[in-house]
Amino acid sequence: MELRIEDLHVSIEGKEILRGVNLKIELGKVHALMGPNGAGKSSLANTLMGNPKYIITEGKIILDGEDITELSADKRAKLGLFMSFQYPSEITGVTMSNFLRTAYNSVKKTNVNVLDFHRKLKDKMKELDMDSSFSKRYINEGFSGGEKKRAEILQMAVLEPKYAVLDETDSGTDVDALKIIANGINNAKEKTDMGILLITHYNIILQHLDVDKVTIMMNGKIIKEGGKGLADEIEAEGYGKYVKEEVQVA
Q1: Any residues with CB less than 8 A from the CB of 59 and at least 6 apart, and which?
Q2: Residue 61 predicted with pLDDT over 90
Q3: Taking 70 as the threshold, does the pLDDT of residue 243 lie above it?
Q4: The dihedral sign for the CA sequence 103, 195, 197, 217
Q5: Confidence of residue 247 (pLDDT cuts 50, 70, 90)
Q6: What is the model's pTM?
Q7: What distance in Å separates the CA atoms of residue 147 and residue 125, rounded to the nearest whole number?
Q8: CATH code (residue 126)
Q9: How many CB atoms lie within 10 A of CB 33?
Q10: Which domain holds residue 157?
Q11: How many domains does the chain fold into?
Q12: How far is CA 246 from each of CA 22, 34, 127, 219, 241, rounded to the nearest angstrom?
C-alpha cells in the first residue's frame, strides 16, 4: 500500500514546473521533501491533491494501486488523500466544528451525530493543546500563524486520511507550536499508520519526528534521496552544492 508518483511532468500556464518526478510514500512512514524556494515542492503538493491549475502532461499518480491522475480533489480526498496548506485561508461564517463534521461525514461516507463528533473533536484538540473555544471560531479567522498550522493538523487528525501531504507545516510557527505540531503528526501516524509527505525548508521540525526518508528537489526534479542525516547535511551546508550539480546536469 503506497502513494506512488511515476515520471510526473506538470505545467502551469504553459511552463513546465515538474520534470519527471518519481516518489513513493508508504503507509506508516514519514517522508520529508526538502529544497530551496522555487524547487517545485508546493507545486507537487497541489498536483497531488488535484488543483486544476496544475496540468499533468505526462506521468501518473497511483494511490494503493488505483490511478487517480484524472480524479478531482474531492474524489481523491474520499480515497484517503489529505493536504494541509502552506497558507491556510480564512473562511468567515463557517465554524471549525461545522466544517470538520461536514468534511468527516463526506470523507467517511457516514452521518456521525453531533454529540459523538464533538467528543472526538474535543479529544483531538486536547492532543494539540487547543482550547475548546476554537471549535466555535470561524475557520482561521484571527488565528496566529501557529494556530492556523495547528488547525491544519487538527483537520488531519480528525479526518484520519491514509496519506497526508503537509506543505510547510512548520512555517510561521514558534518553537512551542512547532513541538505541538510535530507531536500531533507523530500521534496521527502511530494511531492510523498514516503515510506522510512532509514538505519543509528546514531541519528543525524533523528533529521532533521519526523520519524514514529525506528527498531533495531542485528545479522540478528529484536529485537526491537519503536518510535523516541528509537533512542534517543540508542544515550545515545549505543547498549550494546541489545547485552546482543541477547546473552541470542541465
Answers
A1: 5, 6, 7, 8, 9, 20, 21, 69
A2: yes
A3: no
A4: negative
A5: very low
A6: 0.90
A7: 11
A8: 3.40.50.300
A9: 27
A10: 2-249
A11: 1
A12: 17, 15, 42, 8, 9
